[in-house]
């Protein structure tokens, strides 16, 4: 009888020891899947915004906001409770020499979580070579072959069930697209927000 009690006691102890490990592995798997999904949605959103802006010859504040809202709709629902997930979006127009005639455009409910990609009027972030699109008829050596850089960031801890995979606090992606029609014309609202005073002409 005592032997059986000993067996039951050992089984209970083993279960108590193994259960936290099983729970930890389950949470880790769920977090890794969530991170993968989050990065996928962020990349898709950033590339959608960059590609759309790259073919525009005119930009207005309402149209830009509609594009941002539509492209980030899935990103905003990444939270497990379907609550809006705060993100920071930075849009920069960068010339071949890394100069920036426009101020970076900021959107999103969060701020200060993206790694700064500019100092003053100079772009300091990573800027990969952007191949021309098939329907881009601009001259290859055009002096106005600027690109639009879209940076999209969110905080990882807003997504995680545990702290097991918090190697980084911030999840951020970047997308770059060539401006196929040169510098877009801005409406009054975006001009006031992006163009430094005295540089409108």
From TrEMBL:
Q: Which UniProt keywords apply?
A: Membrane, Transmembrane, Transmembrane helix
Ranges where the TadE-like domain occurs: 9-50
- Annotated membrane-spanning segments are 12-35
A Pfam family the protein falls into: TadE
Name of the protein this chain belongs to: TadE-like domain-containing protein
Task: Give the species.
Answer: Candidatus Pseudomonas phytovorans
